[in-house]
């Protein structure tokens, strides 16, 4: 006999259906059709997806949630080791063995991959590349070539489902480390520096472009309109005037906790060191603890050697698990100890001092496991340092992924790149939090026209028949999801009723068992009474025999007495 009490209690205590991780993730975007579309495509199909969107639309968060819920075997890559540390993936250079030099199709040999890495590529179902907007075209080309070569396939990316995530309208791929000849070589063989300059994107590679449009960072509609105008290079005179109204002299904002955004990392480092040197007191240096695989010092998420003084302004480079700070929170060093820092931080117009300890970033690699005949994303190194940088200044590129309450923008016209103005402005949550060193000119605000052409061409490639088919499939999937939930509800109702019936059967069985026990007790009691009755009857019989014997004795004695009397 089994008990259903716990099952019935559980069914009675819950009013929600048991859902998969994917269904729960889908429910977290009830009014976000683009996110739901991307999720369904990734989960239910083999279609490749370019997931894009403006700054602050939650691309990084969505990507992390997808990885948690995804049932497919995936690989996670990023264009740089620094980004890989932040997202918990592996850099493209590390896995594929790419070089910084230009790859020219059919003219340069492809890197050699180990047998283990080839097995990993063969077993994976999906390849994710985050921050693809800064991935150079020849590197994307080489990934395609290597996948085709080592997996013996003629299909783009060897038929693997590709999930590309990033914003093309922000910082472009960096060409600063290339010499003039290399740049000319790149221009001669590719249509643009961006990833879509790879030949497979110009030919038969089909993918769905999904753009996230819900902005979580910027709440003011006027500011969102201004950012979009800067993003798409459609700013009008009124918007430019509104933006340049934020131009002010530095002395007017001395009391505001702000960070200066500039064009070059070297400029930001120089400003930070100047500010630090101007503070009284000794400078204390904290060296990061590095274990396992060694990275270039420029690839770390914060300084390898962190120099601090009491009173130094710092910026947090990660999001605290206890929500004491966010990525981009500014603070002031209040006290310095050997193993921790005390940092004064302003939140919701209140000043508080928090204890900050070292944070550990893990260096990850996809590795083959012969025991399980599969692969895993393993930790092969660690980087431990206080999760802060000097926070008086950062370059716009360094500030990617950060959100600030107040910024002071000082961009050098000599180092402008497409999207730089948009990337800088979009770091701030509000227009009121932006301060400009100088007014923006129209020529300071521009985007690469090839990006717009690429996106327009991809939208046009989705002919009506393809779009109708896609939305038909999307509708079918959505209907199947609803049908599944309805079926789950029916099964839950049936389960509830079955549990009730099972409990009734248990109760009846218990009653029958009790009745049987009562009957047994009655039988035992009756048997005892019968035994007692038999003993009583035996005693009566014995008494009757004794009485008869006494009667016979009395008769005999009477006869003897009479015979003596008459004789």
Q: Can you tell me about this structure?
A:
It is a single chain. The chain folds into 3 domains: 1-16 and 484-558; 31-215, Rossmann fold, CATH 3.40.50; 221-442, no CATH class. It contains 16 helices and 20 strands. The chain has helices at 5-13, 21-27, 33-44, 59-69, 81-87, 92-96, 115-123, 137-150, 180-189, 199-202, 221-231, 237-244, 265-277, 420-425, 449-461, 464-566, and strands at 48-53, 74-78, 90-91, 126-130, 161-165, 207-212, 259-262, 284-287, 289-292, 305-308, 313-316, 330-336, 340-347, 350-357, 359-369, 374-385, 388-390, 393-395, 407-410, 434-436. Strands 3-2-4-5-1-6 form a 6-stranded parallel beta sheet, sandwiched between helices. Strands 14-13-12-11-17 form a 5-stranded antiparallel beta sheet. Strand 2, helix 5 and strand 3 form a beta-alpha-beta unit. Helix 1 (5-13) packs antiparallel against helix 16 (464-566). The longest helix is centred in the C-terminal third of the chain and has 103 residues, at 464-566. The radius of gyration is 40 Å and the shape is elongated.
The separation of the N and C termini measures 91 Å
Helix vs. strand class:
alpha/beta
* The number of domains: 3
Radius of gyration: 40 Å
Q: What is the helix content?
A: 40-55%
What is the topology, as strand order, of the major beta sheet?
3-2-4-5-1-6
Beta-strand residue percentage: 15-25%
What's the main sheet like? 6 strands, parallel
How many helices does DSSP assign? Answer: 16
**Ranges with pLDDT <50 over ≥5 residues?**
1-17
Mean pLDDT: 85
Number of strands: 20
3D shape: elongated
